[in-house]
């Protein structure tokens, strides 16, 4: 028997699931097949969602209120749409009437076309989202540099004679205590600076 599942999600424990639950309950085979999560969409290991995936079989249908219930970003949504298509699971989205239509036997190709269009749209949106993010990062770095703000690893502040003394210390020409005295550092600070300096080499 093919089963109609429902999935509802809110981003935090303080939010309420009732609105989504009420919208889906008339579509599912039984209300026990409505799975839920109170978790961010970026969490790929949402317990309710993962349990639902394990229970679903080819020929089943998934109802969701809106497509962003699947995930937080376009790439994640695309990944799940492809998963459902690959596994023969139909996705019906209440906020997208085209996906809610039923097709006569022999016209399943229409459903396949709708799924393919959805995946194509979200592939494009995911790429645009990534390009926009990269562009914003580049603009942010450029703006920070224009203001004279250093980007990346903070510049290590050491006495000007450090390099020469460090080489002598490593060659055994001076003792660590002498090195500390010459740069006016206490033991914990000295070894912390040595560690930072060696990490920057």
Automatic annotation (TrEMBL):
<dbReference type="Pfam" id="PF00239">
    <property type="entry name" value="Resolvase"/>
</dbReference>
<dbReference type="InterPro" id="IPR050639">
    <property type="entry name" value="SSR_resolvase"/>
</dbReference>
<dbReference type="GO" id="GO:0000150">
    <property type="term" value="F:DNA strand exchange activity"/>
</dbReference>
<dbReference type="InterPro" id="IPR006118">
    <property type="entry name" value="Recombinase_CS"/>
</dbReference>
<keyword id="KW-0233">DNA recombination</keyword>
<protein>
    <submittedName>
        <fullName>Recombinase family protein</fullName>
    </submittedName>
</protein>
<comment type="similarity">
    <text>Belongs to the site-specific recombinase resolvase family.</text>
</comment>
<keyword id="KW-0238">DNA-binding</keyword>
<keyword id="KW-0229">DNA integration</keyword>
<dbReference type="InterPro" id="IPR006119">
    <property type="entry name" value="Resolv_N"/>
</dbReference>
<dbReference type="InterPro" id="IPR036162">
    <property type="entry name" value="Resolvase-like_N_sf"/>
</dbReference>
<dbReference type="GO" id="GO:0015074">
    <property type="term" value="P:DNA integration"/>
</dbReference>
<dbReference type="GO" id="GO:0003677">
    <property type="term" value="F:DNA binding"/>
</dbReference>
């Amino acid at each position: 028997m093919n089963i109609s599942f429902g999935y509802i999600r809110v981003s935090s424990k303080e939010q309420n699931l009732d609105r989504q639950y009420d919208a889906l309950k008339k579509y599912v085979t039984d209300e026990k097949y409505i799975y839920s999560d109170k978790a961010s969409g970026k969490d790929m290991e949402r317990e309710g969602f993962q349990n639902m995936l394990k229970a679903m079989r080819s020929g089943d249908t998934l109802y969701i209120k809106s497509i962003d219930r699947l995930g937080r970003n376009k790439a994640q949504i695309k990944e799940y749409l492809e998963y459902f298509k690959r596994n023969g699971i139909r996705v019906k989205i209440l906020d997208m009437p085209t996906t809610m239509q039923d097709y006569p036997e022999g016209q399943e190709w229409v459903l396949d076309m709708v799924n393919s269009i959805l995946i194509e749209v979200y592939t494009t949106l995911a790429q645009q989202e990534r390009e926009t993010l990269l562009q914003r990062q580049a603009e942010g770095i450029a703006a920070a540099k224009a203001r004279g703000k250093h980007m990346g690893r903070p510049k290590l502040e050491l006495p000007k004679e450090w390099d020469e003394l460090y080489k002598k210390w490593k060659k055994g020409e001076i003792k660590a205590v002498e090195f500390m005295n010459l740069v006016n550092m206490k033991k914990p600070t000295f070894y912390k600076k040595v560690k930072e300096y060696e990490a920057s080499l």
